[in-house]
Amino acid sequence: MRLSLPRVGERGGEAQCMRASRKPPEREKKMAKSSRRIAITENGPYIVTEDVPLKQAFIEEDAEGNSLGWKEGRAYDTNGKVYALCRCGHSKNKPFCDGTHTGIGWEGKETASRIPYAEAARVYEGEAVDMLDRQELCAVARFCDVVNAWQMVIKSSDAHPENEEIATREACDCPSGRLTVRKNGVEVEPDLPQEINLVEDLHYNVKGPLYVKGGVTLQSADGSEYEVRNRRALCRCGESRNLPFCDAAHLKCEHMQGLDG
């Protein structure tokens, strides 16, 4: 099936797709539940338990400003500790919570859909690989725009393995898990450690979302658990309209300007 392509530069290709399938792939690789946990508190911070490592992750760019990869930064001392990460975006001690949310009356109601990722994703089909896309999860890390991941999927074939390689790389670098690649119905995912990365966006000089890796459990304020994912981006500016997930609102937030110390 051939789909109309998203246009390059539109936040990872947000143009309307004309014939995108919404059927899930035939087989889904399920991640094991993790004892490491991020618990969302009502109108408050994320409480992180079971010694989840916390590190900076810088988006690396080329001379033209294209996102090319990730560079690890500072590792925070969280050894054996339970810690609270700011969710409202206004802590004076970012990335940690300092209680500011109580004084400003911040409301952080979870509004994101709980429909499983694959059930609501658009499917782009190629000869060699398919790609699933949940647009509302876009955190605008821009890896998918370098060569246009959607176009590479549709052009993927045994005769042009480089297109499959590019599509897979760009999808797997996506911190939010908006894009995932499937080959013969089985997901192709990077082997990621269980940790939390503070996304540092040098291009815009802003603090980005929490890049949660490796299937760390995410618990709602109501006590239920979100679908286990290898990659997800959690909002930490407090302004997302898709809480608890990032929707790139941080790019317009004055209180998120600059990088984490």
Q: How would you characterize this protein structure?
A:
This protein has helices at 100-104, 117-120, 149-154, 161-172; strands spanning 37-40, 46-49, 54-61, 67-75, 83-85, 122-125, 130-133, 179-183, 186-188, 195-201, 206-213, 217-219, 231-234. A hairpin with a 5-residue loop joins strand 3 and strand 4. The termini are far apart. Helices cover 10% and strands 25% of the residues. It folds into two domains: 37-58 and 76-112 and 193-256, Ribosomal Protein L9, domain 1 (3-Layer(aba) Sandwich); 117-188, no CATH class. The strands form three sheets. The protein has a five-stranded mixed beta sheet, with no helix packed on it. A four-stranded mixed beta sheet has the order 5-2-1-12, with no helix packed on it. By secondary structure, it is α+β, with helices and mostly antiparallel strands. It has four helices and 13 strands.
